[in-house]
Design brief:
The protein is an all-alpha fold. It is built from 15 helices and no strands. Helix 5 (about 100-110) crosses helix 15 (about 315-320). The longest helix is centred in the last third of the chain and has 29 residues, at about 210-240. It is globular and about 55 Å long. The two termini are about 20 Å apart.
């Protein structure tokens, strides 16, 4: 990659990795649904302005039904669940748990998309990743149901992200709509839905005091970690390709651990970084960035004639990229 693309790569990882700290600080003033709405409002405005400046347009009406479904699973549910989860667990754990999203996406894609066949590499990566996720959550620890409940809410958010990515791949990607247009429509749809749910459930009375810290965190979370981050990802995919862009998944948990410990003073027990490393290694294995042990052993034997790669292997990078 060029130096400019390396800068985009690092900035994108930092924005997504820091988003969990911004969520944690914003919760001092906002309820989870209010936080999700504010994040979506700012993010939708940023992306819509960029879409207008680049002379883009929102998608046609015929795909808006699919966009609404994708916005529920890709924004409304995970944004709310991560906020709920961080009321009971740390930003560090939330960031590491999201690192498992590409693995869940690979598994769901293998079930829902015909081209994504469950190869031995994918199955091995998913099993190893599940072990890593269990290590991160640490069910053997005695922190009480609240902590485990918060971590499980974050796991639910990661699963919801994965569902939305597979849905986008299956029902929206065939229409060949520019990614920026889909992003603007998805964030706008999610903003409207979250606003309606908030209005008719908890209302708009803030549970905490609206000080500068929570307000600035919300603005940065929506404008940078939601809006600008999507634009960076789209540009990185166009310039460096989806395989290279998907590597940002490896750095997001790293930034979340560093920021959570340094900026928020969160304690990091051994199982969080260890489990995070296992999840990252499992993702690398499933994507083909690490060789299977059996293939290493087979390297000493005479190699048979090369066969064409399976369709599932060819599409792994696209699915992993979508999981950012």
């Amino acid at each position: 990659m060029s130096p400019v693309n390396w800068a985009r790569f690092g900035l994108l990882a930092a924005l997504w990795g820091c988003s969990f700290a911004f969520i944690k600080v914003s919760l001092d003033a906002f309820a989870p649904l209010q936080l999700a709405f504010g994040r979506l409002l700012v993010g939708a405005l940023v992306v819509s302005v960029i879409l207008a400046v680049t002379k883009g347009a929102f998608p046609d009406r015929k795909v808006w039904g699919h966009i609404v479904v994708a916005s529920v699973f890709g924004n409304v549910v995970p944004f709310t669940l991560f906020a709920v989860g961080e009321q009971h667990t740390t930003a560090t754990v939330a960031g590491v748990v999201q690192g498992a999203t590409p693995l869940v996406t690979l598994g769901l894609a293998a079930l829902a998309i015909r081209a994504e066949k469950p190869t031995a590499r994918k199955v091995t990566g998913l099993l190893v990743g599940f072990v890593g996720l269990v290590v991160v959550v640490g069910p053997w620890r005695t922190h009480g149901l609240g902590s485990i409940g918060g971590q499980l809410a974050c796991v639910g958010a990661a699963v919801s992200y994965a569902v939305s990515f597979v849905y986008l791949r299956r029902f929206i990607a065939p229409h060949k709509i520019p990614a920026l247009a889909v992003t603007a429509a998805q964030l706008t749809s999610a903003m409207v839905i979250t606003g309606l749910i908030t209005t008719f459930t908890i209302g708009w009375d803030l549970p905490g005091e609206l000080t500068a810290g929570p307000l600035l965190s919300l603005l940065v979370l929506g404008g940078a970690s939601t809006g600008i981050a999507f634009v960076l990802m789209n540009r990185l995919i166009a310039d460096a390709g989806p395989t290279t862009a998907s590597g940002v998944n490896y750095l997001v948990p790293v930034f979340s651990v560093i920021v959570g410990a340094s900026a928020l003073g969160e304690s990091v027990t051994w199982n969080v970084p260890v489990g995070g490393v296992v999840v990252i290694a499992a993702l690398a294995l499933a994507e083909g960035r690490l060789p299977l042990p059996s293939r290493r052993a087979a390297a000493a034997a005479p190699a048979p004639a090369p066969a064409a790669p399976a369709a599932g292997d060819r599409n792994q990078s696209a699915v992993a990229q979508e999981a950012c």
